[in-house]
């Protein structure tokens, strides 16, 4: 089907050449449209951007560079292959710097043309897939979270999927991983976002007061109950009730919580009246809930009532570059708050941040960055101003630094070789590693395939000469 064929726009003012190029490309299965001037090319580009543009730089009404500039500025989803005469290779290289994918030097045969277009099509299709993936899955922040690592992308997707329902979400994770942030994110992404979000830390309230905190009480129900008081469940009516460290709740209260979840009704302490409330439950713990069930500290029936959608937050040490993303964000935020000059971490500090295991997770990172900003004032964070225990990581790194220094000394004493020899060996190793696939080798070396072709040609000419 024609609509599934990659489309190529050929911008070439020499008709005889255009006919030959069209024939080569159509034989390869491409849908080809031609333009013999710049204005016609721009019209076709804006109407329906092709997968690949074969662009001659010498056109009767304008320079091909002007068309390339429009493609780049308007971010059209087209890979540009520049066609140039032999004497204007420098211009073609400049075009690639401005966004062209590759270039062809006239004269070229059908095999070279089709190979270049095929590489451009593959590149553009891959770029489109990557862009779509990033748009759908790769986010550097989400609903109060900061992080672009794969574990956090999974967290974001679960939140988005679970938020619209009323199903209970059971969040687990080490202390400091952001369980309350996660609960708030679920609430903010849900239809209940305009209703109350009530958080209750079950580990921070004495056991004898916990029932009153959840369900409320009436005046005179116990010593100190000087008036009627709503509990967290009533305050959360229509919204979300977040029970943090739910495994700390005693067994008697667990049975009352189970009844509340099953019936949607509660009784305030000291009252015989039933109240109906509509809440969405989110709970969290830094313990293993199943271990608590097996140990008899957490009711099994309550566990299965709450453990509908499990969501585990990854520890900071498993989030890779998120450590730097968070640290830089915190540094800028705290520096602005404290009116300090800090802007960045130097290479040494970055290495320490990445190597440190962060047992306290994000909360510990927050404390470390706050300590740096409050006690110091400079543009860049260096290792010498990192607080304990991170400054202990510097001592552990000393042997490695010494080894690195020895290696540097050996390299320093090595004979200096001509740059072209080093470059030639590097390129040849890359091509061999890619089984002769030059475009793949070029991608790994972060250079254009044409650069390799041009250098190989110059090496062969030098060998013949």
UniProtKB/TrEMBL annotation:
Keywords assigned by UniProt, alphabetized: ATP-binding, DNA-binding, Nucleotide-binding, Phosphoprotein, Transcription, Transcription regulation, Two-component regulatory system
GO biological process: phosphorelay signal transduction system; regulation of DNA-templated transcription
Molecular-function GO terms, alphabetical: ATP binding; sequence-specific DNA binding
Cross-referenced Gene3D superfamilies: 1.10.8.60, 3.40.50.2300, Homeodomain-like (1.10.10.60), P-loop containing nucleotide triphosphate hydrolases (3.40.50.300)
Domain Sigma-54 factor interaction intervals: 145-374
Top-level taxon: Bacteria
Modified residues (4-aspartylphosphate): 56
UniProt-listed SUPFAM superfamilies: CheY-like, Homeodomain-like, P-loop containing nucleoside triphosphate hydrolases
Domain Response regulatory: 7-121
Transcription regulation is among the record's keywords: yes
Protein's name in the database: Sigma-54 factor interaction domain-containing protein
Taxonomic lineage from the root: Bacteria, Pseudomonadati, Pseudomonadota, Gammaproteobacteria, Aeromonadales
């Amino acid at each position: 089907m024609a609509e599934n064929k990659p489309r190529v726009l050929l911008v070439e003012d020499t008709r005889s050449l255009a006919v030959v190029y069209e024939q080569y490309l159509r034989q390869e299965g491409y849908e080809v449209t031609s333009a013999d001037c710049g204005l016609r090319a721009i019209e076709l580009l804006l109407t329906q951007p092709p997968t690949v543009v074969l662009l001659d730089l010498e056109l009767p009404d304008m320079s091909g560079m002007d068309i390339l500039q429009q493609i780049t500025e308007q971010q059209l989803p087209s890979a540009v292959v520049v066609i140039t005469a032999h004497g204007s290779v420098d211009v073609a290289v400049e075009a690639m710097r401005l966004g062209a994918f590759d270039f062809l030097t006239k004269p070229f045969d059908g095999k070279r043309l089709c190979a270049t277009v095929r590489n451009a099509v593959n590149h553009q299709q891959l770029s489109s897939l990557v862009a779509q993936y990033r748009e759908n899955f790769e986010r550097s922040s989400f609903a109060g979270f900061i992080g672009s690592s794969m574990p956090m992308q999974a967290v974001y997707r679960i939140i988005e999927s679970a938020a619209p329902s009323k199903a209970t979400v059971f969040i687990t994770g080490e202390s400091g991983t952001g369980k309350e942030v996660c609960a708030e994110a679920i609430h903010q992404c849900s239809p209940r976002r305009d209703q109350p979000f009530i958080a209750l830390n079950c580990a921070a309230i004495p056991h004898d007061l916990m029932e009153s905190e959840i369900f409320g009480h009436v005046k005179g129900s116990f010593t100190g109950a000087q008036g009627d008081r709503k509990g967290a469940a009533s305050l959360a009516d229509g919204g979300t009730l977040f029970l943090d460290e739910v495994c700390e709740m005693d067994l008697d209260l667990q049975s009352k919580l189970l009844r509340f979840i099953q019936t949607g009704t509660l009784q305030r302490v000291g009252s015989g009246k039933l109240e109906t409330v509509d809440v969405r439950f989110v709970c969290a713990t830094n313990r293993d809930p199943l271990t608590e069930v097996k140990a008899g500290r957490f009711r099994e029936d309550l566990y299965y009532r709450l453990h509908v959608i499990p969501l585990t937050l990854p520890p900071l040490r498993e989030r890779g570059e998120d450590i730097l993303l968070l640290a830089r964000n915190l540094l800028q935020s705290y520096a602005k708050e404290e009116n300090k000059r800090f802007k960045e971490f130097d290479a040494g500090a970055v290495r320490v941040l990445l190597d440190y295991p962060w047992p306290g997770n994000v909360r510990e990172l927050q404390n470390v960055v706050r300590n740096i900003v409050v006690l110091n004032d400079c543009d860049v964070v260096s290792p010498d101003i990192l607080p304990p225990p991170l400054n202990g990581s510097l001592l552990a790194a000393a042997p490695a630094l010494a080894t690195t220094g020895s290696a540097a000394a050996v390299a320093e004493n090595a004979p200096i070789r001509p740059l072209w020899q080093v470059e030639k060996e590097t390129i040849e190793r890359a091509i061999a590693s890619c089984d002769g696939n030059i475009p793949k080798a070029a991608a790994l070396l972060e250079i254009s395939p044409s650069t390799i072709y041009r250098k190989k040609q110059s090496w062969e000419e030098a060998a013949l000469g």
